[in-house]
Amino acid sequence: MKKKPKKELLLQGNEAIVEGALRAGCRFFAGYPITPATEISELLSVKLPQVDGTFIQMEDEIASMGAIIGASLAGVKSMTATSGPGFSLMQENLGYAIIAEVPCVVVDAMRAGPSTGLPTSPSQCDVMQARWGTHGDHPIIVLCPSTVRECYDITITAFNLAEKFRTPVIILVDEVVAHMREKISLSDDEDVEIFNRVKPTVPPEWYIPYEDTPRGVPAMANFGEGYRYHVTGLTHDVRGFPTSRPDEIDPFIRRLFRKISQHFAEMQIGEFFETDDAETTIIAYGCVARSAKKAVRDARARGLKVGALKMNTIWPFMRTAVEKVLQTSKTIIVPEMNMGQMSREVKRVNKTDAKVFTINKVDGTIITPEEILSKIKEVH
Amino acid sequence: MTEVTKLIHKYLRHDKKFPHVWCPGCGIGIMLGSLIRAIDECGYNKDEIALVSGIGCTGRLPVYVDFNTLHTTHGRALTFATGIKLAKPGMKVIVVMGDGDAVAIGGNHFIHAARRNVDISAIILNNSVYGMTGGQYSPTTPYGMKTTTSPYTNVEQSFKISELAVTAGATFVARGTVYHAKMLDSLMEKAFHKKGFSVVEVIGHCHTQYGKLNRMGSAVEMMTWQKDHAVTIEKAAQMKEEELKDKFKIGVLVDKELPVFHEEYEKVRKWAKGVR
User: Tens-digit pLDDT profile for chain B (276 aa)?
Assistant: First the structure.
């Protein structure tokens, strides 16, 4: 079979996110300017109207999050993009999207904090904000690319998971990956699987909008299509109406967790790099995963048995993959551009004799391969 | 059943367990009646209406009626409504809010929705107090009034919601009261017909909290107060300033034409595709 000419592009991480979003079917974006996420807004303001989509710049990030939920309820795949300070403002309505089970995608191009912090410096300090930033007990899906190609692929995956599980999906991208340019080829783009929300097939009078199903995900009717139902941020019964009955609240909250936990395997994206015989394994994500891989190659060149686990799924925590390297390695190193948000999770699940070391960099600069390599030499 | 009641029942959700959350004598029910009559008069079908609300006593309104209903977070109803309208411009999007919802926590969204001229009708019940949480002062509590968080009387100045909407650029602004129910029907109908951001401020009463603390009497007495203090815009034009001192104006404050967001955005789509 004759292959189509290669579609090769030199793209920034943020631009690849835009391409991925459009490929996934995103047709609505609401956002508020913030560094280092602004390129996503700017590019979508050009591209969305070209494909009959809608771009709107809202008055703040609270409004942006509200608008994308509204658009998604009306049946349009939607997204917003921000950085740490704006992500904090989005937490309120992010919780709404979780409880009302509205698919949407939120990009957080991380910068150093707290507060206004370092607007143009890289960081990975929103790992826990993404997990627990909104109040209340809830599950969440958070993905993290470390290359421009992954920005594209992971954005498509984010939309697919959002639609499949009726949940917001967060993409955590650090400033390095957001602004870095790499050549990517989209020639295999035709085979991409795009998932759209499952709509009800029953007549409107039989439709139970928050009904439990074996998958834990109810069918979703779009507003204006004949299925009139109630959507609320209050804890609700299967009909969507507010409830204070313990026998209705408990199964609802448990179903929210179950729909994610029971499909855990579908959300696990990562890479074992030279880990088979590794005595020391680096666990890393985002731009640090790139430095980790380079450090592994350099260590191997020196005859050291070192490998890396690259995490592209941040939440739900890649417990199975992490436990695997904990069992096979004597030493684990978790380098992160924060004070240890992910290493804490690694230590939490460690039931082996493996020692977990950390590299924590919080000065607004990236963790270099040399820094990881010197830690390897120190602890291997 | 009288004809009026029959009409209301046509739009109520009968699978939702009543009673509703409102206190006996509350004006929100009257506002809901007007809303239903105006929707019926406009001839919308139930599927094309999205009724969106925020948090508070008024925020509970959509759950009782048979439309696409969305009960959002506090103050944010207009942002969700903006998303719905732009994603499905064919829908008629109506937002109901209380005074705290609309102009305290949601004040920024309110002025920007008005400025942006998204085709949404905002119905705001102004009862000068946070009722659901127990009667705290709101941005529309007049100076000198008592609430549970201004026990020595309120020392802040208050917003005039309709005038704020006019300044922010809303294309249609009207004020009514729950006492003047017939007039409220027609104000809402006009607002729904308006293409652009329309606002109807509904002066209501909270006899349970605000009325009790300020010795304003029962619901009936508070509605009588509305009757005695409301002056139509036409009548006010012929009155002297001192006669209007403790009065408020009801009727249509603004009715103007401005480009509507989703229609303007259609132009953007054409330009984006290279069509000039």
Answer: 688 889 999 999 987 778 899 999 999 999 999 999 999 999 999 999 999 999 999 999 999 999 999 999 999 999 999 999 999 999 999 999 999 999 999 999 999 999 999 999 999 999 999 999 999 999 999 999 999 999 999 999 999 999 999 999 999 999 999 999 999 999 999 999 999 999 999 999 999 999 999 999 999 999 999 999 999 999 999 999 999 999 999 999 999 999 999 999 999 999 999 987
| Cross-chain residue pair A50–B269, CB shorter than 8 Å | yes
Q: Which two tokens stand for residue A155?
A: 């954005």
Residue A44 is part of which domain span? 8-191
CB within 8 A of A92, min separation 6: which ones?
A62, A65, A134, B73, B76
Contacts of B45 in chain A (CB under 8 A): none
Strand partners, A168: A104
Q: Which structural domain range is residue B257 located in?
A: 3-272
Residue B235: other Cβ atoms inside 10 A: 14
pLDDT digit string (tens) for B53-89? Answer: 999 999 999 999 999 999 999 999 999 999 999 999 9
B206 CB-near residues (< 8 Å, 6+ apart): B26, B57, B127, B128, B129, B131, B135
Q: What mean pLDDT do residues A247-270 have? A: 97
| Percent of chain B residues past pLDDT 70, beyond the cut | 100
Average pLDDT, chain B: 96
Same domain, A31 and A120: yes
Last residue of a domain, which of A191, A226, A250? Answer: A191
Specify the CATH number for the domain of residue A138: 3.40.50.970
Cross-chain CB nearest to A69 (options B83, B109, B271) = B83
pLDDT for the residue numbered B275: 82
Are A58 and A187 within one domain? yes
Total number of domains in chain B: 1
Nearest CA distance, B250 vs chain A (angstrom): 30
Backbone dihedral region of B7: left (phi > 0), alpha (psi from -120 to 50 degrees) or beta?
A: alpha
Read off the amino acid at residue B182. Answer: K
Count up the domains in chain A and report the number: 2
**Rounded to an integer, what distance in angstroms lies between the CA atom of residue B113 and that of residue B82?**
8
For residue A105 the two structure tokens come to: 């995608």
Q: What is the CATH number of the domain that holds B83?
A: 3.40.50.970
Q: How far apart are CA B1 and CA B171, in angstroms?
A: 38
| Nearest Cα residue to A33 out of A17, A23, A44, A22 | A44
Query: Which stretches of A235-318 are DSSP H helices?
Result: 246-261, 287-301
Contact residues of B toward A, CB < 8 A = 13, 15-17, 46-48, 50, 52, 62-63, 66-73, 76, 78-88, 90-91, 108-109, 112, 265, 268-269, 271-273
In this structure, the answer to whether residues A316 and A168 fall within a common structural domain is: no
3-state secondary structure of A51: helix
- Spell out which residues of chain B touch residue A65, defining contact as CB-CB under 8 Å: 79
Nearest to A28 among B83, B109, B272 (CB): B83
Tell which of A191, A213, A234 closes a domain: A191
Burial-class residue A368 by CB neighbours within 10 Å (0-12, 13-18, 19+).
middle
* A40 plus A161 within the same structural domain: yes
Tell me the torsion sign for CA atoms A90, A93, A98, A104.
negative
CATH number at A319 reads 3.40.50.920
What mean pLDDT is predicted for residues A180-204? Answer: 91
